[in-house]
Each structure stands twice: as C-alpha cells, then as structure tokens.
Amino acid sequence: MASFEKIAASPETLVDTMRGLKASGFTFLEFMSAVDYIPKNRVEPGANRIDATYMLWNPAANEQKMVVVPLSRDNPSVPTVMPVWEGANWHEREAHELFGIDIKGHPNPRHLLLAEGWNDTYPLRKDFNVDDVEIDWNVPTSKLAEGNPERVYHFAVQHPGAHGPQGFDLLLNGNTIVDAEARIGYVHRTLEKIGEQRNYYQNILNMERGCIMCGMPYIDVWARAVEELLGVEVPEKAKYLRLIAVELNRLSSHLLWMGPQQGGDFAYMPVMMWAIGDREKVLDLLEALTGGRITFAYIRPGGVRWDIPEGFRDMAEKNLRYLEYRLPMYEEMMFRQPIIKERLTGLGKLTPGEAVGLGVSGPSLRATGVAHDTRKDAHIPIYEDLGFRIVTQTGGDGWARGMVRLGEMKESIRLILDALDRLPPGNSEADLFNRKAMPWMKVPVGETYAVTESCRGRLGIHLVSDGTNKAYRTKIRGPSFSNMYAVEHILKKGSYLYDIPALIGSMDTCPADMDR
Amino acid sequence: MLADSLLFKLFVFPGTVFSFIIVLFLFWWWRKIGASIQSRYGPKHVGPAGTLQTIADVVKLITKESIVPERASRWFWFMPVFSFVLSFLFLSLIPFSDHWVIIDFDASLIMLFAVMAIEPLFIFLVGWVSYNKYGVAGGERAGIQMLAYEVFLALTFVPVIMLSHSWSLVGIVYGQGVSPTWASPVLHTFVDRGVWFGLVQPLALVLSIIAVMMATEKKPFNLPHAEPEVIYGSSTEYGGPFYALQMLSQFLMGFLGAGLITTLYLGGWALPSVPPALGFVLKTLVVGTIIIWLEHSLPAMRVPHLLEVAWRKLVPLAFLNIFITLIIMEVLGWA
Amino acid sequence: MGLIKPLLYTLRELFKRPITVKYPYEKRDISPRVRNIHTLDRDTCQHCGICARMCPNNVLKMVDGYPTADYRYCSFCGICLDACPTGSIQMIHTQEHNIVRAYQKDLYMELLSPDGTIYNPDAPHSEDNETGGVL
Ligand code: SF4
Ligand code: SF4
C-alpha cells in the first residue's frame, strides 16, 4: 500500500522517463510536488537541494512509483510534463509558487493558491520567513482579467452558484463559454506547512481540517502514514471502527452533496432540506461515536480514541435503515425525474482516458466506467473482508456521477451495518502505546505514502520523517484539486453558463480539500 | 356612494390596501407551504404563527439604505416603481366581481395580454440600467423566457374566448354560466350556478396554469432570477426598499396570475352562498396554493430545455386543445 | 410523467410533522462524548503545563499554576485531556455554554471544577472590573 519505489531522473530526461513510465502502465499522475532539503535537515544531513517529486500510480498492479528530480536550491527548474499528463498543470503551478521551481514551457505560470501579487518568497521552503512576504494587490486576478477586465464574468467566490470559495473567470459569448480560468486558493491555509509544525499527535486535529465535509478519511490516512513509519500493526477492532467512522463520514458528505450541492444547483429546495435533515441522523451517529459532528479527532496513530459506545448498534440500525428507506425516494426525486435528468445527462462528459489523464478520481472517475476505488485497489483493511463492491456507471456525465454516489451511499450503509455485526472483541488501540506517551511519540527517519478513498477521490499523504516528533514534509494530495482542474478543462472545451453550477456540483469539489 | 367610487376601488378594495394585505398574506403562506414541504416550520415567532413576519421583513427592508451603483443609469430608481405600476395595471383589469373591477371594457383580455407582454421588457431594462453583468444576463434570460411562453399563453386563451364569445374578462365570467346563456343542463346541475370552463376544458386549465407560472416566473421557469446561475438576475443590484417593492410586485403578479386562472376557468367570483368578491379571493387562493405547491416541488429548468418544452410540447398541445374545442362546439352545437 | 412521483412525495411531506428541533423550547439529546467545556480538578493537577504545551491551537495558558483557556481558539478536540498525566483536566458536555461563568484574565478563563461549578465565585465581573467578565 504505502511503500513506493523511487526513480531518479534529471530535468533533461524527465519527459522521456515519464513517457516510458506511462507506457509501462503508470497511467495516473497523483501529484507533482517537492521536498526541500536545507543543509541542517536531519533526514539527509548536509544535503542542499530541492527534490521535485512526481508520484505515479499503476492502477492495474497497484504499484506506486515516485520520480525524483534533484534540483539546486538556488535556481531549480524542470520542464513541464503537461505533454504527458494534461492534469499536471495545476500541480506544477503549485510547485512553482510554493517552492519556487521554475516550470519550463508551462502555459500559464501564474499563482494559483497564493495571492497573485505575492513576491518571490516560497512558503513551503524550509527557510521561508513570513516577514519577507510582500503582496501587490493590484495584479489582475487571472490571465483572462489581464486583457479585458470589463468583459470577464466572475463566476467566483461570492457567487451563490459557486459552492464556496472557488470559481471561474469566464469570457462569455451570450450563454456560451469562450474561455475559462479557475480562481481557487481562497481557503489556502498551507495545511502542509502546519502539518510540519505540529507534532504527529496534534496533527490528527489539523489534518481533518483538510476537508470540512469529509474529514475522517484525512485523519485515517494520516494515522496510517504514521503507523507505516512506526511499523505498528493496528488491532482488528480499531480497523473496524475506522471503517465505520470513515463510511459514516462518507454518507454524511454524499448527503450533503445530494442536497445543498447538486439539489441547490437546481434550486431544488425539498431535496436540499430533506438531505440536510437526513444527514442529521448520520451526524447523530458520528456524535455518539466520536463526540463531534463535523470535526472528530477520532482516529489517531495506533488505533481510535474511543471504543464503540453502549447501544450504538441499535442506533445505527435504526438511523441507517431509515436512510436506506429514504434513498429510493431521493433517486426518484433527483435522478429519475425528467427536468433534472435532462440537466444532468451529458453534463461535463469525460471519457475514461481523459479522466485518467486529468488525474480525476473518486466517483467522478468511476462514473466513466473505470473501476478504480482506492479502498479496494490499495487493500485498505477490512473492506475486502466485507465484500466491498465498487460502484461504477458508464455515462461519464453528471447523471452517472450522481448515480455512483447514490450507489456508494447504499454500499456504505451495508458496510457499516456489516462491520457492526462482525465487530471483533478486543482493544481499540495498539498495546504498544502507552496512551499517555502518545503525544511525545518520535517517528524514525523514513518516507512513506499512504492513500485512501476520501468522499471525493484518491487522497494521499506523502510523509517524510526526520526522526523527531514532527514531520519533515507532509504533502497532501487533495482529490478535489485535480477534479477542479477537470472542471476547468471541461469548461474550456465549450460549455454554457447555465451548466456551470451543476457541473461544479456534480464533480463535488470541496474548496478546503482543493486549497488545503 | 363611497364604496362605488373609482377612488375607493383604486385605493381600498381591489386596489392598494387590499393588494398590500393579500401580498403580505401570500408571502407568509408561500413561506409556510414551502417550509412544510421541506420539513421545516417556517416563520413562527412574529405574530400568531409568524403571520406578521412579512411585515417585519418589509419594515426592515424599507429602513435599509438603498445603494445605487456608481455607473448605473439614472433610470435605476424608476424601474422597480414602473414594474410595480405594471402589476397594478394588471390588478385593475382583473374582475373581483362584476362590480369590483376597476377597468372593464370589451377587449380587456387583450389589454391584459399586452401588460403581461411588457413585463419581461421591464425585467430586461431593470437589469440593463443597473450596469451589472448578472443583471444583463438575467435580463437576457427574461427575454428568452418571453419567447417561450408568449405565444403559448395567447393560445391557451383562445378556447375560452371561443366558448364565451367575449374578449372581456367580465364577459368571460358571464360566459361560464354565471348568468347562463348556453350551458348544458347536466353540467348546470353539477356546478351550482353554471359551467366553469375548467370542467369542460381540463387540458386548457392545466396548460394555462403552466403558462401563468411561466409568465410570473415560478420555480421550474424561474430562469431570469435563477440564483445559482445569474445571482438574482436583473434585480441583483437592487436592495432595501426597492428589493421590497420588487418582491411585493412579484407576489402581486403571482396572485393576479392565479386570479386570471380563476377568472378564465373557474367561474370567476361565482361560489355558492359566498359574497362574490370573497368567492373570487378564496378560489384564487386555492389556485395560488396549488401553484405554490408546484413551485416548491420542482427544480429549475435549463434554458434550452424550457424553449424545447414550450415549442415542441406545449404549443402543439395548445393547438390540439383549440381543435378539440372546435370539434366539441361543432358536435354539441354550442357555437 | 416522471414528474408525478416527486410531486406526490412533496405532497406527502406537506402533511408530515417537521423534523426541526425548536431549539430554545425543546432540546435534543446530546451524546455523552460531546466535548463542550473543560473542567479541572485542582486537587490532582500538578501544574506541569503539559496540557498547555500539547494543545495544537495554543488555547491553554498556565495562570497561577493552573491551565486557563481562551475559548476563542479552542476546537474542542480533547488532545489536552489525552496529554494530561493525571487526568485532572476533563471535558464535559453541556447544552449551552451559559454555565460558563469564569474569571477572565486577558480573555483566558479559569476552568470549571469537575462538578461544573466555578472556582472563583467572587471573582470580579465585567461590571466591576474591565478585565474581568462573565460569559
Ligand atoms: S480541546 Fe483541543 S483546542 Fe481545546 S484546549 Fe484542549 S487541546 Fe486545545
Ligand atoms: S497536564 Fe494535567 S496535571 Fe499538568 S497542568 Fe495540565 S491539567 Fe494540570
């Protein structure tokens, strides 16, 4: 699952290496990022370089390979890999602004997450100093806005259809979109930097801020990355409890998607409110289990923080059976009725090849007929024991995405109830840990990549440890980041103004997950 | 007599005071039904069952500053007032009873149709004068919507005119047996005082409800103000008292749309053992409730889908309806 | 015709009881695991300050040897409880925060005692003292 093979490359050979790897089955570029080694680091003392890192995934064999390009810290520069993976675009922009890596041949090397007028200081470098930052607030917000600010239609940030602080600058010809440029980064908290400044235990709190609607997979994957480095095996019961917590969170996130996100796009108030109301039932379960409704701090390295509460089984049975009974109604209301079906059919259609090339993952990828679900591919514990079934559709459009999510909700309900039935006795936490010693836990030097399926797609954390109680580098692969790039790509191909909210909604992008 | 004077009609009963009250009530009712459909309570605290909530809202909106965009045209101020005046024109044409009608002449239906046709133009102008991209986009959609419903709306009027031999709204109500001239005896006993066109013309009734919902921008057809796409469309820049005025005129239009259905298909003011004007209001509220229910249970449509449905499905149905009416009139000798 | 079913669903919902909880008048049950507010057992606390060091958000500050909290930043995660070697600091669940009536110093509030009462009932209120306050 987590170990990966490192391949060294030089800037000159990078594109060829990538081509070769893609041809040999590594079709999926998970992220492009970097690790900054300043001389006084403890991972490789004395090293003075930036490693540009490209994480590749071979879905068929579930193999993970990382292409590492060592660069000088003074003037790092790599060629763009966009000819090989279209989806590398935003990842390269991110590396450009956060690490100062010059991407040769990039079509639009503007700032993506940081303010447009941010000066040449790079937040994720280890010698970054906040005092050096100066921001020029007069730089136009996008490349489109540079030339003709009067004509740009802002479908962004404050727009009620934009689903939070994300959006686009558009050039319109009537209702037809001529050009689009995404504007994201409004909730960029540099979660990766925060992750490097808090210790491993405190990070269970910070990591779940990665996605507001779906925080549990974040702490799950964080805990698994840390366990990987520690070499700890989690007790069976904790695995079950983690699965239950993650799936409950997935249910609540998908309900939120169905109501306020997708239902809200059509101003479909009944479904919107009913979904919020039914989500309460799931939140009640989460509250009983973890004590939190949105942010949980439930999973920690070595296990889970609390064992299952008294009477949880009956409560889950009652609430989830109710939800199961409501799902056919939602299907009828949202996916079978002609007005919405007309709006969703053919909306933002992606072919399987396109989707993989763009780095799309999660329900949006499975809607194209590609049966990749990290829960199964990466052999996340227990899922296969419970007979987890991947939900796919073939349409690749908005309707198919919705149906995949609906199917996943059914699957999640089944998984949770099955897991509760088969919950093994025992500890909910590895004995290895003295509970009180946890916060001081030091993690041996090493490097790992843990992945899971969050509600929005493939979520990964690349963790570099330097032997102290704080991580040296935490790179988070937020699934929404790539999915949002796919939205921009679809809009550029030609779309209509009235399709945008539904399109963003159907990709279920989460701004927090996107900006991190 | 005071109650007979035009001034009383203009300012008290079908006019200002009454319409203000009915709009406030309707706003509350709209919210209550919507809330109930969405498993909520809706307004609850201000007044008994929240009935005074709307007044509180209107007072709040009136006390707010109305911001005029820097580059807006000087017509910015007038536009909401104009659309309010327009809805009053609409109001003055609707017969609350043969006595309580402000303007009635032989061709009031045509006049009413003209008023309904001007309205989208105003929506477009409202967007245009506020110098706002969303306003213009919303106004454009109002135009598209007009293309979709205008012909269709006119076609749904035709069978009624054919049956009642009248272009006047009061005449149409008379034509429904309120003072019977042609009604068949069977149906005559069925309904207390006459045959409502809605009973002989169910298809036309349904079609006109759809047309009226389109004309008054109710939910599946709320393109000009579709929030997820064009924010609040043409009214995006209007706030405070002007927003209140627009909301009120929108709800007044909604009420009058339902009133039009009542007049054309449900026998106008005729309701057994109820004073005429009250009968009209009650029936209109029933129709209004049905429209509110439909509005709250349907999602917004896509622009091309609306045009397609209107021209490919609804217009042919309206024509079909006219032919059916012709045949029935021929066969039964109602002509 | 697919429209009929949604219409019937909404019609059915029209006559159902709303699911809203009328909050100030009726209250829902809260799970005992909910963490709303800290309590501190002053008898067992050994003034070690570990809770303050472990808090990810720097909420806790040691004042007069006891942790005090600035609730503006607390995310109610409970990591401070995990860190405390004696278990003196705990969190309880409440319906409202109105039981918090604590002495303030620079917005840092003294924690409650384990039975939910306050340690310093005579501490100055906001009326008497600008730095004190009742929440
Ligand atoms: S609950 Fe969390 S945020 Fe609050 S004081 Fe404790 S550790 Fe800090
Ligand atoms: S960690 Fe526990 S014992 Fe130490 S100061 Fe905090 S509450 Fe007191």
Task: Explain what you see.
The complex is a heterotrimer of chains A (516), B (335) and C (135). By secondary structure, chain A is an alpha+beta fold. Chain A has two domains: 5-139, NADH:ubiquinone oxidoreductase Nqo5 subunit (Beta Polymerase, domain 2, 2-Layer Sandwich); 214-477, Orthogonal Bundle (Cytochrome-c3 Hydrogenase, chain B), CATH 1.10.645. Chain A contains 17 helices and 14 strands. Chain A has a four-stranded mixed beta sheet with strand order 1-4-3-2. A three-stranded antiparallel beta sheet of chain A has the order 7-8-9. A three-stranded antiparallel beta sheet of chain A has the order 12-13-14. In chain A, helix 7 (236-265) runs antiparallel to helix 8 and helix 9 (312-336) packs antiparallel against helix 14. Chain B is mostly helical and 335 residues long. The longest helix of chain B is centred in the middle third of the chain and has 32 residues, at 133-164. In chain C, the strands form two sheets. Chain C has a four-stranded antiparallel beta sheet with strand order 2-3-6-5. In chain C, strands 1-4 form a two-stranded antiparallel ribbon. The longest helix of chain C has 11 residues, at 4-14. The radius of gyration of chain C is 21 Å and the shape is elongated. Classes of the chains: A alpha+beta (516), B mainly alpha (335), C alpha+beta (135). Chains B and C meet through helix 2 and helix 13 of B and helix 1 of C. Bound molecules: iron/sulfur cluster (2 copies).
Q: Would you kindly provide a brief summary of this structure?
A:
By secondary structure, chain A is of the alpha+beta class. Chain A is built from 17 helices and 14 strands.
Features of the shown structure:
heterotrimer; A: 516 residues; alpha+beta; Beta Polymerase, domain 2; Cytochrome-c3 Hydrogenase, chain B; four-stranded mixed β-sheet; three-stranded antiparallel β-sheet; 17 helices; C: 135 residues; Alpha-Beta Plaits; four-stranded antiparallel β-sheet; two-stranded antiparallel sheet; 3 helices; 16% helix; disordered C terminus; binds iron/sulfur cluster
Write the SSE topology.
The complex is a heterotrimer of chains A (516), B (335) and C (135).
Chain A: E1 5-8, H1 14-23, E2 28-37, E3 49-58, E4 63-72, E5 77-79, H2 88-99, E6 102-104, H3 143-147, E7 152-156, E8 167-173, E9 176-183, H4 191-197, H5 203-207, H6 216-230, H7 236-265, H8 269-290, E10 299-300, E11 303-304, H9 312-336, H10 338-344, H11 352-358, H12 363-366, H13 374-377, H14 398-421, E12 446-454, E13 457-465, E14 471-477, H15 479-493, H16 500-507, H17 511-515
Parallel strand pairs in A: 1-4, 5-6
Antiparallel strand pairs in A: 2-3, 3-4, 7-8, 8-9, 10-11, 12-13, 13-14
Helix pairs in contact in A: 7-8, 7-14, 7-16, 8-9, 9-14, 14-16, 15-16
Chain B: H1 6-11, H2 16-37, H3 53-62, H4 78-93, H5 108-129, H6 133-164, H7 169-178, H8 185-190, H9 197-200, H10 202-215, H11 227-230, H12 240-265, H13 276-297, H14 303-332
Chain C: H1 4-14, E1 37-40, H2 50-54, E2 60-63, E3 66-69, H3 79-83, E4 89-92, E5 104-105, E6 108-110
Antiparallel strand pairs in C: 1-4, 2-3, 3-6, 5-6
Bound molecules: iron/sulfur cluster (2 copies).
One iron/sulfur cluster is lined by residues 55, 57, 59-60, 69, 74-80 of chain C.
